[in-house]
């Protein structure tokens, strides 16, 4: 499935972050990627519980064609591993999700979560410090009052920029099961957190209480057949949110209808195509990600093989369906065996909602142009592309590799997968994580 | 990474693929990734896949383990939580858990899945049974209708424990294999091991269970689950091959698994007698405490 006729895309590799060798520590594996609302900052989380924030430099005049680069702005340890003594189980420090709050002042705020605990981090800059105290020397020692002869007024002097990250809130002990999603409300006061069976609503200021708004835990756990897999607030309506399930359905809920939103307002579900039914039909229908469009009119769902765009006004079927890697349909048994079938791929919208993007295997990622109804398969590789050089599109064929930029299904490397992606809110810059590295791609301006 | 077999068109291929998926699912449910909490979503998906295959098999008239839907599923593993009721504005507390015994249940369920017991038919009287212990009794009856379990059960423990024939030995083997697979777990594993060995041959149940487990666990579910579990031990003789040799000879696998009914009824009966003695012993202790 190719895009352009000549096999070239408009995208080019901008930067690669992280070690470029094959020997990667488990803790360094990236598990979350998220641009902030202006696109100036790019946050990544890893399995070691660390967050690294990159900042876009001011546009450089020497390279007018490329947007400015992202460089490390702040690094901090967000979550530590914990041990649940009652259950004799470790709580992983792996960062599952990062969500930025809209910026209200000079400081930046983000929410980060692992399986059990959500934290609000404040990232602030300090580039001045007061100097000229009367009672203290510059190194902090106190001066003897009797040695004072004159008084002076302390003044702020510039200093080297220091970026500080401090935890402002810790929202703990509200989730029995593993948190899979957090989403900040458009009211900028509340946010939701979702685990396998429950969704809680928090106020950012209060850590000791949360409202349970969805609970799908059955009275008898033996009857459990469906779990929550992803959840998000509507970008404009503060009363509306959606959650996706492991059975491939998405429920839209209105918090005005009732306090406990177990009854959905809308149910988005596409009837199954009986011709493609297999043992794995349910597993591959499980929603791995759900994202509203920026306009709020549409939402996108990702399941194992497809991307679906839904019009919020129509529940019966999606308005657009894109095959991400349909050639895997005949390989589902093997993918079940090696657990790849449980991989949860994210997806993201372009700022103007005209394109969507998601990851695949073999370090491929897929771009779908909704307007032109074209798609492209690109590879995240620092070997096969130099910065500034446009990426070539790939084809996947049955059998073994045949031609240049064509690869056979049997040759795909399923250990190299792109699960986490984020699109710059305004510009055409995408950030995605392979297992080892963070890749930043930019689109060539026409 | 190649497909084990091509896209099926023939019923045999479908049958083989279904068996493969069944074996894989069992393997996945049983293997624990590590020291951290296994994913509930994953388990639910695998369990649903298993249920689907079970429904198909049942529809085709193949005897399947009745434990899938009647009994606790593996999902009861995570239900060891005591939690404050969810409600508006209620602070959620961190959950206590009953992991050790929950893990015990989980392991037993694996054995249940592996067992080709007789067809699942709840006796009509079961719906009227309110006493959970009696329902366990009914379950035993259900599993072994030809043996006259009720008489066995109600009589004193005078059964011959020395009926350790080849089948029982091999079932013990299965126990140990599975126990070893479990041993990577934390303290929970010791309990599961002990539970399995109990219903194999060793009357050391009490030593390995702590009093807390009895206090906080449904006693009936302990018995309820354990008896069918034990009955499946010898029957899992063939199924143990399923677990350990997924890609191996399918015919052998299918012989062990597919032939429910008469072939496996006899060995299970013998194991039954063994286990009912243990059950008697446990009951005495529990009722007495």
From TrEMBL, chain A:
Name the UniProt key words of this record, in alphabetical order.
Repeat, WD repeat
Source taxon at top rank: Eukaryota
SMART domains found in the cross-reference section = WD40
**InterPro entries attached to this UniProt entry:** PP2A_PR55 (IPR000009), PP2A_PR55_CS (IPR018067), WD40/YVTN_repeat-like_dom_sf (IPR015943), WD40_repeat_dom_sf (IPR036322), WD40_rpt (IPR001680)
Q: Which GO terms describe its molecular function?
A: protein phosphatase regulator activity
One GO cellular component term, please give it. protein phosphatase type 2A complex
Entries under PANTHER family matching the protein = PROTEIN PHOSPHATASE PP2A REGULATORY SUBUNIT B
* Assembly: PP2A consists of a common heterodimeric core enzyme, composed of a 36 kDa catalytic subunit (subunit C) and a 65 kDa constant regulatory subunit (PR65 or subunit A), that associates with a variety of regulatory subunits.
Q: Which family does it belong to?
A: Belongs to the phosphatase 2A regulatory subunit B family.
The identity of this protein, by name, is Serine/threonine-protein phosphatase 2A 55 kDa regulatory subunit B
This protein's species is: Cirrhinus molitorella
Kindly list the organism's lineage.
Eukaryota, Metazoa, Chordata, Craniata, Vertebrata
From TrEMBL, chain B:
Highest taxon in the source lineage:
Eukaryota
Q: Per the database record, which ranges form the SERTA domain? A: 14-61
Q: Which PANTHER family match?
A: CELL DIVISION CYCLE ASSOCIATED PROTEIN 4/SERTA DOMAIN-CONTAINING PROTEIN 2, SERTA DOMAIN-CONTAINING PROTEIN 2
By what name is this protein known?
A: SERTA domain-containing protein
């Amino acid at each position: 499935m190719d895009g352009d006729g000549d096999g070239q895309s408009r995208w080019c590799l901008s930067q690669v972050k992280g070690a470029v060798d094959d020997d990667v520590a488990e803790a360094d594996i990236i598990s979350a990627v998220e641009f902030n609302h202006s696109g100036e900052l790019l946050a990544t989380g890893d399995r070691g519980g660390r967050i690294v924030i990159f900042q876009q430099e001011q546009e450089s005049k020497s390279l007018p064609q490329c947007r400015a680069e992202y460089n490390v702005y702040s690094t901090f340890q967000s979550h530590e591993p914990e041990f649940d003594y009652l259950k004799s189980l470790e709580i992983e420090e792996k960062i599952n999700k990062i969500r930025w709050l809209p910026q209200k002042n000079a400081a930046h705020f983000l929410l980060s979560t692992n399986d059990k605990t959500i934290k609000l981090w404040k990232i602030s800059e300090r580039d001045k410090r007061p100097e000229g105290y009367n009672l203290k020397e510059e190194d902090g020692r106190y001066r003897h009052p009797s040695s004072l002869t004159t008084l002076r007024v302390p003044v702020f002097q510039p200093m080297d920029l220091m970026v500080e990250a401090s935890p402002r809130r810790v929202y703990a002990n509200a989730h029995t099961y593993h948190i899979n999603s957090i989403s900040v409300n458009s009211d900028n006061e509340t946010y939701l957190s979702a685990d396998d069976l429950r969704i809680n609503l928090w106020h950012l200021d209060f850590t000791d209480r949360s409202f349970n708004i969805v609970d799908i835990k059955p009275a008898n756990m033996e009857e459990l057949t469906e779990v929550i897999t992803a959840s998000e607030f509507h970008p404009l309506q503060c009363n509306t949110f959606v959650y996706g399930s492991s059975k491939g359905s998405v429920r839209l809920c209105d918090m005005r209808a009732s306090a406990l939103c177990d009854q959905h307002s809308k149910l988005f579900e596409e009837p199954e195509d009986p011709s493609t039914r297999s043992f794995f039909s349910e597993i591959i229908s499980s929603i791995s990600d759900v994202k509203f469009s920026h306009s709020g009119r549409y939402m996108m769902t990702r399941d194992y093989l497809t991307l679906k765009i839904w019009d919020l006004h129509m529940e019966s079927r999606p308005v657009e369906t894109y095959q991400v890697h349909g050639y895997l349909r005949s390989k589902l048994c093997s993918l079940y065996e090696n657990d790849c079938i449980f991989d949860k791929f994210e997806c993201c919208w372009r700022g103007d909602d005209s394109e969507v993007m998601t990851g695949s295997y073999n370090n491929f990622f897929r771009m779908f142009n909704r307007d032109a109804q074209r798609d492209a398969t690109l590879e995240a590789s620092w070997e096969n592309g130099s910065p500034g050089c446009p990426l070539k599109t790939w084809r996947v064929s049955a059998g073994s590799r045949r031609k240049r930029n064509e690869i056979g299904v049997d040759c795909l490397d399923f250990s190299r997968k792109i699960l986490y992606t984020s699109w710059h809110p305004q510009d055409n810059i995408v950030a995605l994580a392979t297992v080892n590295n963070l890749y930043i791609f930019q689109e060539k301006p026409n | 990474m190649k497909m084990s077999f091509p896209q099926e068109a023939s019923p045999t291929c479908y049958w083989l693929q279904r068996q493969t998926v069944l074996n894989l699912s069992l393997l996945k449910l049983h293997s624990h990734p590590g020291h951290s909490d296994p994913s509930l979503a994953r388990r639910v998906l695998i369990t649903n896949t298993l249920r689907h295959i079970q429904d198909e098999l049942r529809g085709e008239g193949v005897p399947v383990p009745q434990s899938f839907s009647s009994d606790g599923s593996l999902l009861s593993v995570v239900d060891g939580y005591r939690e404050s009721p969810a409600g508006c504005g209620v602070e959620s507390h961190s959950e206590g858990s009953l992991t050790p015994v929950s893990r015990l249940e989980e392991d037993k369920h694996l054995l249940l899945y592996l067992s080709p017991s007789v067809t699942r038919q709840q006796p009509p009287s079961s719906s009227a049974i309110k006493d959970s212990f009696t329902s366990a009794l009914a379950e035993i009856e259900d599993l072994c209708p030809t043996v006259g379990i009720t008489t066995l059960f109600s009589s004193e423990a005078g059964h011959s424990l020395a009926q350790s024939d080849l089948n029982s030995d091999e079932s013990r083997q299965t126990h140990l294999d599975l126990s070893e697979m479990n041993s990577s777990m934390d303290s929970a594993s010791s309990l599961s091991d002990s539970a399995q060995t109990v219903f194999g041959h060793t009357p050391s149940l009490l030593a390995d269970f702590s009093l807390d487990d009895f206090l906080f666990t449904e006693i009936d579910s302990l018995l309820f689950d354990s008896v069918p579990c034990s009955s499946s031990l010898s029957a899992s003789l063939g199924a143990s091959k399923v677990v350990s040799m997924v890609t191996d000879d399918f015919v052998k696998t299918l012989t062990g698994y597919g032939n429910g009914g008469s072939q496996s009824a006899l060995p299970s009966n013998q194991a039954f007698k063994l286990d009912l003695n243990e059950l008697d012993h446990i009951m005495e202790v529990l009722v007495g405490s």
